[in-house]
Amino acid sequence: METARRVEAVYDDFQHCTARQLDGKRSVVMYAPASCGGSSSGEEFAPDELVAAGLAGCTLLSMQIGLLAQQRKVDLIGATVRAIVRMSCGSSPRVAGVDVEVRLPRALAAEDRRAVEEAAKGCPLTASFHPDIPISVKFNYPES
């Protein structure tokens, strides 16, 4: 089964655009990233930050969906995912690598840790990156 999400971006002015859902009412404003010569003031998201936000959210939701599918009752409330999208800004700007850090709010038994880590691998965005783009995923658990 294949699904499609529809978004349209409109160029508003110098290095500034707005993306809108075509089937919803949400929008997000973007500026060209300062890291690659853009003029972002840091008040809006840059496209690479939206990629990072998507990866972070996708990882959290995949963990929850994967754990439900395994019928595991692991409490994820308060879990955080930090995603860093590293850009190469040479003559052909591109994503150079991705670092994902998952932080769980409470200690888990070894069996539950394995289940959480396996469920996190279910993020379809992570699986969609080209194999030449290195992706590291690290899990941090509080001590028992």
Walk me through this protein's architecture.
The chain is an alpha+beta fold and about 140 residues long. It has helices spanning about 45-70, 110-120, 125, and strands at about 5-15, 15-20, 25-30, 80-90, 95-105, 135-140. It contains 3 helices and 6 strands, in the order E-E-E-H-E-E-H-H-E. It has a 3-stranded antiparallel β-sheet with strand order 1-2-3, with no helix packed on it. Strands 4-5-6 form a 3-stranded mixed β-sheet, with helices on one face. The longest helix is centred in the middle third of the chain and has 23 residues, at about 45-70. About 15% of the residues are buried. The model has no long low-confidence stretch (mean pLDDT about 90).
Structural class assignment: alpha+beta
Instruction: Assign the CATH class of the largest domain.
Output: Alpha Beta
Let me know the largest β-sheet.
3 strands, antiparallel
Total strands:
6
Order of helices and strands: EEEHEEHHE
- Report the span from N to C terminus: 42 Å
Gyration radius over CA? 17 Å
The fraction of residues in strands falls at 25-35%
Low-confidence stretches: none
| Tally of discrete structural domains | 2
Shape descriptor reads: globular
The CATH H-level superfamily of the largest domain is: K homology (KH) domain
**Total of helices:** 3
Second rung of CATH, namely the architecture of the largest domain = 2-Layer Sandwich
For the biggest β-sheet, the strand order reads 1-2-3
Average per-residue pLDDT, rounded, comes to 88
CATH topology heading of the largest domain: GMP Synthetase, Chain A, domain 3
Q: How much helix, percentage-wise, in residues?
A: 25-40%
